[in-house]
């Protein structure tokens, strides 16, 4: 079946869900607005899962369809069937593109681009590797720890690419047929994924969850790390143990002849200081009162004003990730405000589940 046929089937499912009578939807109390949002949720889920179109395209589609089907900017022909109180604000929908969590991620992207441009990331990795020694198991654990640390503030993909480039020369003088090579290489992406758990900007799902931790459930950047970093550390240790068991090796030592040379230019020093200050302010936000979203503006402003990040560098920002997050935020807002999220939760027999756990 061709890609276009699959898209046609998914689009047909969406249209059918839109035109069905509300009474045919097996969710108690659902409104017309809720039905339209639920149909869009299913459409978006199918597109994200099948990857028939880029993920960010689906997110942009979410913004557009929400605005024209259930907002106060909906065409009159579609708006007549919606009670005024069920209309969503088109301003709130569009605001998803500039939500504070988007700024938080953008701050992380600016740090990652500047760190790569002035080789702060690779030089820091080399410095941290030096005291580890040459024992195979210790080198693997050290690489995993460093990879996880960087992936807390950089994209997992960029961190993995950087660390694998650093690993390549370390494995030049060992037996290429030894299973330990597989373990060492696999350790990098595993650690990058686990390290992403450690901060709200480590991976997009963290940022979306962080956005909802408000009010009495609010959590600062540092609070998140206090909970998530120990979890990541335990998972990394388990992974390290399993990799060595699954891929036993005869390699005893790895030669670590690593040389680092930090740039000493004025702009490089600005990168070092700004990055350190931003991370420090993020971790201590509960002490000084500046929230994480505001702190994220520091590298954006400083690196832009000083020319560290120029027009060419801006193009390296993962805009698709930011748009993907924006679509998720808009869809979450719509599901919450139009009722399906609450209705679906109410359908779950929590009392029965609690009783079953007591047996």
How would you characterize the overall build of this protein?
The chain is built from 20 helices and no strands. With 359 residues, it is mostly helical. The mean pLDDT is 84. It has helices at residues 3-19, 32-50, 55-69, 76-79, 90-94, 100-117, 120-129, 136-151, 156-167, 179-195, 204-212, 221-246, 266-283, 285-288, 292-295, 297-305, 311-314, 319-338, 340-347, 350-358. 68% of the residues lie in helices and 0% in strands. The chain folds into two domains: 3-98 and 321-358, no CATH class; 100-307, no CATH class.
Question: Short description, anyone?
Answer:
With 359 residues, the protein is an all-alpha fold. The chain has 20 helices and no strands. It folds into 2 domains: 3-98 and 321-358, no CATH class; 100-307, no CATH class.
Instruction: Report Rg.
Output: 24 Å
**How many distinct helices?**
20
How many independent structural domains? 2
Give the % helix.
55-70%
State the secondary-structure class.
mainly alpha
What is the string of helix and strand elements? HHHHHHHHHHHHHHHHHHHH
Which key terms come to mind for this protein?
single chain, 359 residues, mainly alpha, 2 domains, 68% helix, 0% strand
Give the arrangement of secondary structure elements.
Elements: H1 3-19, H2 32-50, H3 55-69, H4 76-79, H5 90-94, H6 100-117, H7 120-129, H8 136-151, H9 156-167, H10 179-195, H11 204-212, H12 221-246, H13 266-283, H14 285-288, H15 292-295, H16 297-305, H17 311-314, H18 319-338, H19 340-347, H20 350-358
Helix pairs in contact: 1-2, 2-3, 2-18, 3-18, 6-11, 6-16, 7-8, 8-9, 8-10, 8-12, 9-10, 10-12, 11-18, 13-16
């Amino acid at each position: 079946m061709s890609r276009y046929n699959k898209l046609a089937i998914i689009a047909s499912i969406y249209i059918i869900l839109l035109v069905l009578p509300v009474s045919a939807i097996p969710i108690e109390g659902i409104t017309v607005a809720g039905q339209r949002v639920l149909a869009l949720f299913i459409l978006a889920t199918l597109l994200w899962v099948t990857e028939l179109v880029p993920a960010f395209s689906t997110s942009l589609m979410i913004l557009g369809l929400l605005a024209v089907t259930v907002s106060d900017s909906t065409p009159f022909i579609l708006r007549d069937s919606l009670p005024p109180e069920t209309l969503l604000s088109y301003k709130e929908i569009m605001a998803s593109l500039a939500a504070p969590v988007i700024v938080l991620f953008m701050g992380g992207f600016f740090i990652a681009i500047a760190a790569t441009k002035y080789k702060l990331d690779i030089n820091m990795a080399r410095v941290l590797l030096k005291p580890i020694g040459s024992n195979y198991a210790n080198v693997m654990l050290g690489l995993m720890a460093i990879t996880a640390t960087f992936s807390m503030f950089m994209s997992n993909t960029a961190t993995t690419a950087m660390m694998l480039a650093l690993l390549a020369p370390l494995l030049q003088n060992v037996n290429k047929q030894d299973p330990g090579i597989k373990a060492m290489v696999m350790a990098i992406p595993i650690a990058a994924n686990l390290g992403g758990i450690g901060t709200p900007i480590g991976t997009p799902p963290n940022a979306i969850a962080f956005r909802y931790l408000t009010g009495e459930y609010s959590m600062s950047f540092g609070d998140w790390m206090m909970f998530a970093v120990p979890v990541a550390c335990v998972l990394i240790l388990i992974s390290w143990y399993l990799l060595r068991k699954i891929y036993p090796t005869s390699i005893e030592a790895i030669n670590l002849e690593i040389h680092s040379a930090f740039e000493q230019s004025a702009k490089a020093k600005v990168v070092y200081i700004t990055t350190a200050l931003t991370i420090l302010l993020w971790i201590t936000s509960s002490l000084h009162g500046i929230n994480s979203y505001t702190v994220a503006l520091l590298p954006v402003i400083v690196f832009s004003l000083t020319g560290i990040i120029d027009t060419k560098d801006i193009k390296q920002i993962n805009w698709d990730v930011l748009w993907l997050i924006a679509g998720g935020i808009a869809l979450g807002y719509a599901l919450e405000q139009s009722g399906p999220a609450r209705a679906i939760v109410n359908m779950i027999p929590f009392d029965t589940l609690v009783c079953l756990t007591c047996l």
